[in-house]
């Protein structure tokens, strides 16, 4: 109840803490008092809203930083092009002014050598576009966790097709959502839904490894809490 009250007052961080505690207490409860799905729905709302607000801030910050980097790259490119033009222009002018003066052949060679130290305009422009492409890739990767995609199949129940809330594993090695599996055993029959082997509720145990994997995924992909 405290978690719901905090959620209503938009205190999402505290609401998440209280709802997570309630979820842990609810997992493994008796069928008659099982409320994991209800708690999960409220927790998902809080988590999703918390992620959504954070994602908007991150998107704006990344956009501003990307624009700054692009501007600095452009300024650097223009500076390099200017330097390249300045370094090459005097050599051509001096050759014209002293045309036929043999003793400056060494200087002419030296001028050519210096010119080769600076990339030609084409190389500078090419490098600039390569840097822009790399920058785009970096920011694209940075924003990837906030872009919704399909949740990996191994993190979803084979019956509900939703991400696990309270995963349990059967002796056959198949993982299901606890509430869904227990309902199957009560209403359909005492057998594993996938392997069809005999199964009773006392043989079902929590899949802690899957629980940790799901939580790790949700921590990095808050959009996956969306349930509507």
Automatic annotation (TrEMBL):
<dbReference type="InterPro" id="IPR011990">
    <property type="entry name" value="TPR-like_helical_dom_sf"/>
</dbReference>
<dbReference type="InterPro" id="IPR045202">
    <property type="entry name" value="CHIP_RING-Ubox"/>
</dbReference>
<keyword id="KW-0677">Repeat</keyword>
<dbReference type="GO" id="GO:0045862">
    <property type="term" value="P:positive regulation of proteolysis"/>
</dbReference>
<comment type="pathway">
    <text>Protein modification; protein ubiquitination.</text>
</comment>
<dbReference type="GO" id="GO:0061630">
    <property type="term" value="F:ubiquitin protein ligase activity"/>
</dbReference>
<keyword id="KW-0833">Ubl conjugation pathway</keyword>
<dbReference type="GO" id="GO:0000209">
    <property type="term" value="P:protein polyubiquitination"/>
</dbReference>
<dbReference type="Pfam" id="PF04564">
    <property type="entry name" value="U-box"/>
</dbReference>
<dbReference type="GO" id="GO:0005737">
    <property type="term" value="C:cytoplasm"/>
</dbReference>
<dbReference type="InterPro" id="IPR003613">
    <property type="entry name" value="Ubox_domain"/>
</dbReference>
<keyword id="KW-0802">TPR repeat</keyword>
<keyword id="KW-0808">Transferase</keyword>
<feature type="domain" description="U-box">
    <location>
        <begin position="150"/>
        <end position="224"/>
    </location>
</feature>
<protein>
    <recommendedName>
        <fullName>E3 ubiquitin-protein ligase CHIP</fullName>
        <ecNumber>2.3.2.27</ecNumber>
    </recommendedName>
</protein>
<dbReference type="GO" id="GO:0051087">
    <property type="term" value="F:protein-folding chaperone binding"/>
</dbReference>
<dbReference type="GO" id="GO:0006515">
    <property type="term" value="P:protein quality control for misfolded or incompletely synthesized proteins"/>
</dbReference>
<dbReference type="InterPro" id="IPR013083">
    <property type="entry name" value="Znf_RING/FYVE/PHD"/>
</dbReference>
<dbReference type="GO" id="GO:0043161">
    <property type="term" value="P:proteasome-mediated ubiquitin-dependent protein catabolic process"/>
</dbReference>
<dbReference type="GO" id="GO:0071218">
    <property type="term" value="P:cellular response to misfolded protein"/>
</dbReference>
């Amino acid at each position: 109840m405290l978690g719901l009250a905090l959620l209503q007052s938009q205190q999402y961080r505290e609401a998440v803490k209280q709802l997570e505690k309630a979820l842990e207490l609810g997992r493994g409860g008796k069928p008659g008092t099982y409320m994991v799905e209800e708690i999960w729905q409220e927790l998902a709302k809080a988590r999703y809203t918390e992620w959504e607000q954070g994602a908007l801030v991150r998107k704006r910050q990344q956009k501003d930083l990307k624009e700054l980097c692009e501007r600095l790259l452009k300024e650097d490119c223009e500076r390099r092009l200017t330097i390249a033009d300045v370094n090459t222009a005097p050599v051509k002018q001096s050759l014209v002014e002293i045309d036929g003066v043999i003793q400056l052949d060494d200087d002419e060679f030296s001028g050519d050598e210096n010119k080769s130290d600076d990339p030609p305009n084409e190389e500078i422009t090419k490098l600039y576009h390569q840097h822009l492409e790399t920058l785009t890739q970096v920011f694209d990767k940075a924003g990837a966790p906030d872009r919704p995609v399909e949740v990996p199949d191994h993190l979803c129940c084979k019956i509900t097709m939703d991400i696990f809330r309270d995963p349990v594993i059967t002796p056959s090695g198949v993982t299901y959502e606890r509430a869904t599996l227990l309902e199957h055993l009560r209403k359909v029959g005492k057998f594993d839904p996938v392997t069809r082997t005999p199964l009773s509720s006392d043989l079902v145990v929590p899949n802690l490894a899957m629980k940790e994997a799901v939580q790790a995924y949700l921590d990095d992909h808050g959009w996956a809490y969306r349930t509507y």
